[in-house]
Amino acid sequence: MEELLQWMEYIEDIRQKRKVRHSLKDIVVIVLFATLANADNWVEIAAFGEMYQDYLRNYIELRNGPPSHDTICRVMGLISPEVLQRLYGKWQELLNREEGKVLKKIIALDGKTMRGNRRREEKACHIVTGWSREDGYSLCQKAVKEKSNETTAIPELLERIQVKGQIITIDAMGTQTKIAETIRARRADDVLALKGNQGTLYEEVREYFGDKEFQKGIERAGNYKRTVEKARSQVEKREYYQTEDIKWLSQRKEWKGLKSIGMERKTIEKGEKRTEEYRYFISSLGNDIETLSRAVRGHWSIESMHWHLDVTFREDANKTIDKTAAQNQNIIRKWCLGILRLSELSLKNKRLSMKTKRFVIGLDPIRFLEEVLNS
Fold first, then answer.
1. Percentage of residues in the chain with pLDDT exceeding 70?
2. Residue 27: which residues within 8 A CB-CB, separation 6 or more?
3. In this predicted model, what pLDDT tens digit does every residue of 72-126 receive, in sequence order?
4. From CA 7, how far away is CA 4, in angstroms rounded?
């Protein structure tokens, strides 16, 4: 925490110095700590700063006392989201600096709309994030006007982060030839989802895997994996198929670096009810069913992160109008999610959910913030 506080000194302050009463460092620390302690909006964050100002002075100066909620929101609207994202990245670097080599990481790209940010005359912020599944950490993000703009944001995100040697996963909206070319140019691999919006390509892959003889051949070749899990009073079976037999694909030459296609069949059994779901993919990976299945399942991590933003941090209920302040609060929430994920906070040796961890910290911030920040 001490090193991170030193890095906060380098946040660029564009305000007129003679009018500054509260430092950027003070504001960011208050927002970060308050968000961990179950504060969701600017009024609650300011109340936290007022209630625990003596404790906060262990970390920040607060030379003019705690700031008001209007001041906190206004200042958070002045900080560049790119700068705050780099600060968040510095925290992750401090955590990872002792790590040795790791397996290929899954980097999932997907977007989420901040619904509470919508106004009658303008659309809500839609944030496209690059999420490291192994680290549980946001590598980068970019705000766009709406979901349809994700395809323009993805190439820019790929340029911002080090993806060489890693695996990029994207949902069907981002499965486009130019995006695949960008990934290959960055010397990364990809696993891209297919849906009906890919037209002929989707139909050809779906029909191929619908042939039982082809499925048996893939199983015999060892390019098949099956997992069974019990969750929420139901049994979930996942079967993965992969093949490099793609010379017959009519659009194969349009997809630079395409080496294989894959399918996931998910069977859910709950009592007498049985349902099946199918998902299809194209990939630059050669036959490697372990890696493909890890990438397909790994993309779920970014969807889980989006779920936590809504459920654990109640993001969609937040009514912040300022787009920049809203984006920065989104970064802070992801940062807190990473801190909570790493913390070993428990009660009577019972593991707590992310949401309950925030609630518990809010009950006694002085005790539990120290435990979380030093874990």
1. 97
2. 67, 71, 72, 75, 76
3. 999 999 999 999 999 998 888 877 755 544 568 999 999 999 988 877 777 888 9
4. 5
The whole-model pTM stands at 0.89
Q: What is the pLDDT of residues 305-338, one digit of tens each?
A: 999 999 999 999 999 989 999 999 999 999 999 9
Pairing of strands 167-170, 106-113: parallel
Residue-range domain boundaries for the chain: 2-92+338-373, 185-289
Tell me if 259 sits within 8 A of 241, measured CB to CB.
no
Q: For 242-285, how does the pLDDT look when each residue is reduced to its tens digit (9 = 90+)?
A: 999 999 999 999 998 999 999 999 999 988 899 999 999 999 99
Residue type, 373: L
Rounded Cα distance between 236 and 221, Å, is: 24
